[in-house]
Structures are given as structure tokens and as C-alpha cells.
Design a protein that fits this description.
With about 160 residues, this protein is of the alpha+beta class. The protein is built from five helices and six strands; from the N terminus they run H-E-E-H-H-E-H-E-H-E-E.
Length: about 160
């Protein structure tokens, strides 16, 4: 089965990184990722896989998807990797923060600039603001200083 092959690739990859792990489990995708398979790595060395502000985490997901695509070809299913439920916590915190900042933008009829964040986090912010009346998002800045601005727009 493809998911067993992916799990094997993940285990081999993190072992080659020299990171010990308790398990790699296929888990139910949460937060609207119904079509994707989630693999959760349980490890005491999560800092190595997550990195500062999730930089390694994003790279880990990118690399593993590329490796799996190369090995399985077109039959590779859509998936993502979580480490000790980091992604779930990140999504929860980001949803709360974006909700507060979105309401602030509407209440004060102003733009709210967020702190610099990874491309993955920016994509989540854009998605979380999608379809909200009076709200538009835009990314500003370059490289590691790129951030999202939640903009208030008048209804027409």
C-alpha cells in the first residue's frame, strides 16, 4: 500500500538525519485537509525537525513530498508530515490570532500588519481570511521579513 511505502520513506529519511523517533503513524487529517494523508512523527528530538519558527518543518515536508513523488511517481497521494502535533498547534494558534486581527481590522477600519512568517504560515493566513466580507490580505516584504497585512476594505 502507498501509505506504508511513504511511512517507510519517512522513517528512512529521519534516520539518515540522525534523528531518533518513537513512531511514524498515519493519522486522520484535520483542519480541512480531508484529501491529504497525514503522517505524524513522534520524537524527543522535535527541535531538529521543526527548527526555529518552523523553518526546518516546512523544508522537511517539501523534501519528503519530492522524495515520495520521485519514488512513487504519479501514484503518490497528497500527504503532509507533522512532528509531535506541531502543525496542529500552529494552525490552532494562527486561527486564533488571525480571528482577533481580522476583527481588529474591521472594528477600527484599518490595516493590521502581522509579524514576518514562513510562506506556509502566510498561505494559511490568506486562506483563513478568504471569503470574509470587508477583508483582503496581501503579502509585503522580502525573504525572511515577508509578512501578511490584513486589510479592511469597504463593502460596495
Amino acid at each position: 500500500m502507498e501509505s506504508e511505502k511513504i511511512k517507510s520513506i519517512i522513517k528512512e529519511f529521519i534516520s539518515k538525519l540522525g534523528v531518533s523517533h518513537e513512531s511514524v503513524e498515519e493519522t486522520k487529517a484535520k483542519n480541512g485537509d480531508g484529501d491529504k494523508i497525514q503522517f505524524t512523527i513522534k520524537t524527543a528530538e522535535s527541535g531538529v525537525l521543526i527548527g526555529a519558527k518552523g523553518t526546518h518543518f516546512s523544508a522537511l515536508n517539501h523534501l519528503l513530498r519530492k522524495i515520495v513523488a520521485k519514488q512513487l511517481g504519479e501514484t503518490a497521494p497528497a500527504f503532509f508530515v507533522d512532528v509531535n502535533d506541531y502543525r496542529e498547534g500552529l494552525l490552532s494558534d494562527l486561527k486564533t490570532k488571525v480571528g482577533i486581527l481580522r476583527e481588529r481590522a474591521i472594528s477600527f477600519k484599518t490595516n493590521v500588519e502581522m509579524e514576518p512568517m514562513s510562506s506556509y504560515e502566510r498561505m494559511l493566513v490568506h486562506t483563513l481570511c478568504e471569503g470574509h466580507p470587508n477583508i483582503k490580505t496581501e503579502s509585503l516584504g522580502e525573504g525572511p521579513m515577508r509578512r501578511v497585512v490584513i486589510k479592511y476594505v469597504e463593502s460596495v
